[in-house]
Amino acid sequence: MLGSGGVSDGYEIGSKRQRMMESNPYFAVSSSATGFQPYGYGSGFQPPAFPVVRLRGLPFNCTDLDIFKFFAGLDIVDVLLVNKSGRFSGEAFVVFAGSMQADFALQRDRQNMGRRYVEVFKCKKQDYYHAVASEVNYEGIYDNDFHGSPPPSRSKRFSDKEQMEYTEILKMRGLPFSVKKSQILEFFVDFELAEDKVHIACRPDGKATGEAYVEFASAEEAKKAMGKDKMTIGSRYVELFPSTPDEARRAESRSRQ
After folding, report:
1. pLDDT tens for residues 9-68?
2. Any residues with CB less than 8 A from the CB of 162 and at least 6 apart, and which?
3. What is the pTM of this model?
4. Long-range contact set of residues 118-126: C-beta below 8 Å, sequence gap at least 24
5. Distance between CA 36 and CA 154 in Å, rounded?
6. Which of 25, 45, 161, 201 has the fewest beta carbons under 10 Å from its own?
7. What are the C-alpha distances in Å from 246 to residues 65, 116, 249, 250?
8. How does pLDDT run across 197-217, given as a tens digit for each residue?
C-alpha cells in the first residue's frame, strides 16, 4: 500500500514541480542571508531538514513507477531522474512528504531493484535544486526561481537532440492523460502514420502515464518529426525524444502487467 501520495501522483509530478516550489515552505528559495522562515517559525526555531534522498545505481530502464514501487508505503512528493546529455545517468532524487519519511527511505539502502542493488543516501536541498535547474535549462523550461543563465534557444535545444542517435521511434512526454491515438495522429498529420504504430503508455492499472511511443517509417522521418518538439496537444506542450524499439517494448510490456 502506498502512502497518501499514491502511484498516480508519480505521473503528475513533473507538471506539479513548479507549483510545489511556489506553495510549499520546503521548496522556498531565498536570496537573503537569513534564508526563508515559514510562517510561525521564530528565530530560534530550526525547521526540519529538507526531505530528499539521492539514489545511485538504478537500472538504465528505470521509470518513476519503479521508484514508487521501491519506496512502497512512503509518501513521495517528487521524483527527478537525472539525465546527462539527454541520457539517464542511473541516479535520481526523491523528495518525500516529511523528514521522517526520508529517514525511513534511507533504510532501503542497498536493497535491490531488479538485479541491481540501489544506493540510497542523504543529500542537500541545494543538490536537488541544482539537478532541477540543470533539467530545466536542458529542456528549455526556464523558471525565474532559478537565477542562472537563460535557457538555450529552441534551435540550440533542437541541435542538441539532433546529435543524438535516432531510430524510427520517438517518445512523447507531457501528453494529456486523456489523450487519444487520433489526437497523436493529428499532431503528426504531416507524416504517414498508422494507428497501430502509436502506443500510449499506461500503468498496470490502465491509467495513462502521459507518455507515448510513435513508430515512423524510418529514422529519417522520426528525425524530421522532431520539428514538432514543444508544440501542443490541447493545453499541454509535448516534448519529443529519440527512443528505441526496446524502450517502446518495455513500456508496452509494463502496460500489460
Report:
1. 443 444 445 545 544 545 544 434 444 444 445 555 567 789 999 999 888 888 888 899
2. 223, 226
3. 0.44
4. 118/55, 118/56, 118/57, 118/58, 118/70, 119/55, 119/56, 119/57, 120/53, 120/54, 120/55, 121/53, 121/54, 121/56, 122/53, 122/54, 123/52, 123/53, 123/54, 123/93, 124/50, 125/50, 125/52
5. 34
6. 45
7. 18, 19, 5, 6
8. 999 988 877 888 888 999 999
